[in-house]
TrEMBL record:
This is ABC-type glutathione transport system ATPase component. Keywords: ATP-binding, Nucleotide-binding, Transport. InterPro entries: AAA+_ATPase, ABC_transp_ATP-bind, ABC_transporter-like_ATP-bd, Oligopep_ABC_C, P-loop_NTPase. One of its GO terms (biological process) is peptide transport. GO terms for molecular function: ATP binding; ATP hydrolysis activity. Signal peptide: none annotated. Belongs to the ABC transporter superfamily. SMART domains: AAA (SM00382). Residues 2-242 form the ABC transporter domain.
Amino acid sequence: MLTVGGLGKTYGRVAVLHDVGLEVGPGEAVGLIGVSGAGKTTLARCVVGQESPTRGEVRWDGALVRRSLWRSRGERAWRRHIQMVFQDPRAALDPRWTVARSLMEPMRNLRPDLARGDEALADLLGQVGLDAGHLRRYPHELSTGQCQRVCVARALAPEPRLLVLDEPLSALDLPVQAQIVGLLKGLARRRGLSYLFISHDIAAVGELCRRVLVLEAGRVVEEGRARDVLTRPAHPYTRALVTDTPVLRATPRPPAGPGR
Ligand SMILES: Nc1ncnc2c1ncn2[C@@H]1O[C@H](COP(=O)(O)OP(=O)(O)OP(=O)(O)O)[C@@H](O)[C@H]1O
């Protein structure tokens, strides 16, 4: 599915990513952790083809993922199959568009073959725990947690196989973060989705991901099973990252509800 090899990215003279390798298989959730400025967002943008690497490559089912190929018709498979969810759900939604229109746009662009009637849109919203009444609402009429659910529904609209989630919890209150993690776990189970999950929340990474990569100043310094890396980190940088963080939650999270 997703293969990243020898990836390097330089802005001007500043090298932000160095020889990064990464694979995400079908149904696999891979976590990416690192301090602010480590290069996580740059890597995510290369993975979805919004940014072109300076070295190395990103491939989806063998096909090259590149910004310059964004508009090329023959390369549409990865555009459809890799979708991104951003940190700030309010900024990610067009304030002038209803929820229905936000959901329809990616379908129109990437999956003109799919039905886009109210029933199909209501079904999409149902998958993220929102009822059809939300279709005619605007982002300002929704809570931040509901906006993030809409962003997840929008990412699901073209029926992708991989979601790249860049700090999807940071703008949310703690209980709403728990609901979104519950939602993502449920979606992975039901749809066999894969995730590249970028988060400062080590506990959420431990809960959602089987494998984790640790990025320090653009280099992968540690990689392995989340349970091992997060509970018995080998690298001092990882140890510093996970110190004082309750790694695997001791208490079960509440079930995903309709959100606030
Ligand atoms: N378009 C750009 N031009 C120049 N430098 C950039 C650009 N985008 C990112 N950078 C730099 O690349 C480095 C990595 O940024 P990036 O956003 O990938 O880090 P991050 O790990 O996602 O950080 P955060 O957790 O704060 O989002 C930073 O030093 C940043 O200033």
